[in-house]
Amino acid sequence: MRNIEEISDQLKKLIGINKKINNQLEGDETNIAFLEEKIDQREEYVKNLTLLIQKVDPAGFTKEQNKSLKVLFIRFDQQSQNIQKALDNIVEKSKDQLDDAIKRRKAEEKYQLLK
User: Fold this and answer.
1) How far apart are CA 18 and CA 40, in angstroms?
2) How many other C-beta atoms can be found within 10 angstroms of the C-beta atom of residue 90?
3) d(Cα 27, Cα 21) in Å, to the nearest integer?
4) Amino acid 2: pLDDT
């Protein structure tokens, strides 16, 4: 069945993109342009996947096909959750750095007033 192969291929591509995004987020330096490109690419694949799913009657899938797709969906979902956690950590770290910078600036201003 061609539709299941297309869905499977889309999921595998999404898993590959998620892996690249996760690797980038886990690295020391985050390349924003790279992330932006991959997130845009991911969005397109999700749209395509949604269209494919809408065309398919899941009742026509075999047990093996259902199991295979379920494994891919679970993997995609887990990766998506990891991406969200990594982004949340980056936001939290950025907030902490901003708070530290504000405290340093205030301390420097007070020091300047005392001079």
Assistant:
1) 12
2) 12
3) 10
4) 76
**Among 11, 4, 14, 5, CA closest to 72:** 11
Buried b or exposed e, range 20-53, using 16+ CB within 10 angstroms: ebbebbeeeeeeeeebeebeebbeebeebbeebe
Q: What is the pTM of this model?
A: 0.79
What residues make up the domain containing 76? 2-114
Residue 111 neighbours by CB distance under 10 Å: 9
Q: Measured in whole angstroms, how far is the alpha carbon of residue 12 from the centre of its chain?
A: 14
The backbone torsions φ and ψ at residue 81, rounded to the nearest 5 degrees and listed phi first, read -65, -40
Query: In the predicted model, is pLDDT for residue 23 greater than 90?
Result: yes
**Residue whose token pair is 């990594």:** 86
Structurally, the chain folds into a number of domains equal to 1
